[in-house]
Amino acid sequence: MFTLLQIELHKIYSRPRTYIAFAAITAIVLIFQFAFKYDGQSYMDLMLQNIQDNFEIDKSKAINGYFMCYIILNTLLIQVPILVALVAADTISGEANMGTLRLMLTKPVSRTQLLLVKFLASFIFTVCLLIWMAIIALFLSLLIFGHEDMLVFRVKGEESFILQITKDDIMWRYFAAFGYAAIALTVIVALGMLLSVFAENSIGPIVATVCIVLFFTIVSNMNIPVIDRNVKPYLFTSYLVGWKGFFYIGLDSAEQPIKGSIENWPAIQKSIYILLGHIGFFLSMAIISFRKKDILS
Amino acid sequence: MNTILKTNQLSKSFKDFKAVDNLSFKVNQGDIFGFLGQNGAGKSTTIRMLLSLIQPDSGSIEIFGMNLQTKRNDILRNVGAVIEKPDLYKYLSAYDNLKLFAKMSGIKVSKSLLMDQLELVGLASRYNSKVGTFSQGMKQRLGIAVALVHNPELIVLDEPTNGLDPQGIADIRNLILTLSRDRNKTVLVSSHLLSEIELIANRMIIIHHGKKVVEGEVKELLDPSKTILKIETGDNSKAFELLSKSNWTKGLTITQNQIQLEITKSDIPDLVRFLTAHQTDIYLIQNLHSLEDYFLKLTNPKEDVHVVTN
User: Fold this and answer.
1) A35-49, A216-230, B37-51: range with lowest mean pLDDT
2) What ipTM goes with this model?
3) Could you say which of B215, B234, B259 is where a domain stops?
């Protein structure tokens, strides 16, 4: 199994296409950092325009490494599923398209084993992508913008407000958030692999995965009560942004932040279980379908 | 002679199209077994079933005395295959491709082993070149190296000379002969060209519309004393019925206007006597002489051939 995993990782990292995702993330993050370094105040003015009268905020400190990473993750974690789909939805269909799938399956390796190894390799790719994001979005931002307390802008129902997290209470939240993001993105990996099993070329499953994610994300973001109640709970995309929960700090009765706390841990736990359930379902379906598939490519 | 591979009434359909129909044959140890049929006859489907790429609808496959369905991995450890054109990873070098598939075969990989294989197929000097820069012939040779790297007992080559120039075809042919002669490998090689099979195989099968037409020793099938006989009678259906119950059922087929069968020349008078004794009027009796004529006739898509398998 370990040898097979090595082979799969070797294939993934030998392909120039793999690095598109890393290059895209790097470019976006660097643009963000450049823009905030030179004109971050305008952004802060815009964000704080409604509450400046109520709070005294040192805007020069508000734009710091932790805040930058939060802003970048907010933007990137919607786009990253597309980058993950590029690799995951190509795993089986890409091999079928190249004609290498039939050669692989004439080797003494079971189809279940092969699919699990490919899933694991895609998961590792996803984790590497997140680690790279952490390096450039968090650690590079900390180098450029420094460490300070972090402000989190939050909209809850009709209300919008700001949470402040002290700088010594932030890093663990990022590790937890990246861990959550890894689980969330693994759902996309499993979905991409499932669709990949049915196709003989990469384009179809990649486009299908991206379309499903986009469509579900749009529906997940609709603020219509009937959809909130009856549709959103069943869409995995509703849980993709659950990582933000780690930054919603718990408040005491005086509305003061409680260090080291999370406002709604059970909700995060539930989201993790739902995402794991989706991974299990998509992966099982992929294995069942792949085991039955006639290799005609 | 040990039987290495045996299929029993193998069938496979794709929706309404019956690709393989009750196909039974066997390959003996050390054979170069020719698997002959026109394009679309069911060769690739059969080969893919032998390699567990396609699940048969019915029938069974035994390789090395084990059932493919239950002992797939044990069997495939000793099988090497090239299916149609060997597509490999274009972005990897010849050496890396070979290494990767060798590891998948579960063997201990060393540089000398890999270089020996590349040497065998004449690619040692290009070991570091990306496969994307290779010609079709070079890819084909690398595909064969991939098939051989784990030293399998049985080698399955599906149309290995497709798309090759004459020199490439000769190289592959010599390689197959070397594998059989010097390394005692069993080779199953498919082709749509009788001339190819005739040059290398000791046993062969011809399939048509997914059914077996004939199976046997190439020498025997191409023996000039044996012939394919074409017969036209007053009532072909009745004659076909009679022959089906006689000793002359080998290669027996019926089309709209004629009956064909394989026969030893010295048996022809007996066959004529047999038919006339059963009140069958014979209008035409003709030797088709060679198996090639027979094969070409058989694979003419305009003819509707019915086959009695034996």
Assistant:
1) A35-49
2) 0.76
3) B215
Separation in Å, CA of A113 to nearest CA in chain B? 12
Residues B33 and B107 in one domain: yes
Determine contact: B91 vs chain A, CB below 8 A: yes
Q: Which pTM was predicted? A: 0.82
User: What backbone phi and psi angles, to 5 degrees, belong to B259?
Assistant: -120, 145
* Same domain? B180 vs B234: no
Tell me if B73 and A108 make a contact (CB, 8 A cut-off): yes
Q: Which of A150, A97, A96 is nearest to A105 (CA)?
A: A96
Same domain for B36 and B159, yes or no, is: yes
Nearest chain B residue to A17 by CA distance is B91
Across the strands, what pairs with A153? A162
Sign of CA dihedral B107, B113, B118, B122: negative
Instruction: Compute the distance between CA of residue A260 and CA of residue A244 in angstroms, rounded to an integer.
Output: 15
Instruction: Classify the phi-psi angles of A57: left when phi > 0, otherwise alpha if psi is within -120 to 50, otherwise beta.
Output: beta
Residue-number span of the structural domain to which B286 is assigned: 225-307
Chain A residues with CB-CB distance to B92 below 8 A: 11, 14
Nearest residue of chain A to residue B90 (CA atoms): A98
Give me the helix-helix angle, A265-292 and A171-197, nearest 10°: 20
Which H or E run includes A271?
A: helix A265-292
Cα(A127)–Cα(A116) distance, integer angstroms: 16
Closest in B51, B88, B103 to A100, CB measured: B88
In tens, the pLDDT along B69-100 reads 899 989 999 999 988 777 888 889 999 999 99
Residues of chain A positioned with their CB less than 8 A from the CB of B48: 102, 294-296
Nearest to B87 among A100, A107, A296 (CB): A100
d(CA B164, CA B80): 20
> What does the pLDDT average to over A86-98?
87
Place of tokens 């990246």: A178
B50 and B143 fall within a common domain: yes
CA distance B279 to B282: 9
Quick check: A24 and A131 in contact, CB under 8 A? no
Phi, then psi, of B250 in degrees rounded to 5: -65, 120
> In the prediction, which pLDDT does A55 show?
59
- Yes or no: say if B240 and B246 are a contact pair by the CB < 8 Å rule: no
Residue B220 lies in a domain: no
Task: For chain A, give the number of residues.
Answer: 297
Task: List chain B residues with CB under 8 Å of A11.
Answer: 89, 92, 100
Would you call B104 and A98 a contact, using CB atoms and an 8 Å cutoff? no
- What number of residues does chain B have? 310
Q: Side chain identity at A38, as an amino acid letter?
A: Y
Split into its structural domains, chain B has a count of 2
Say if residue B154 is in the same domain as residue B234.
Answer: no
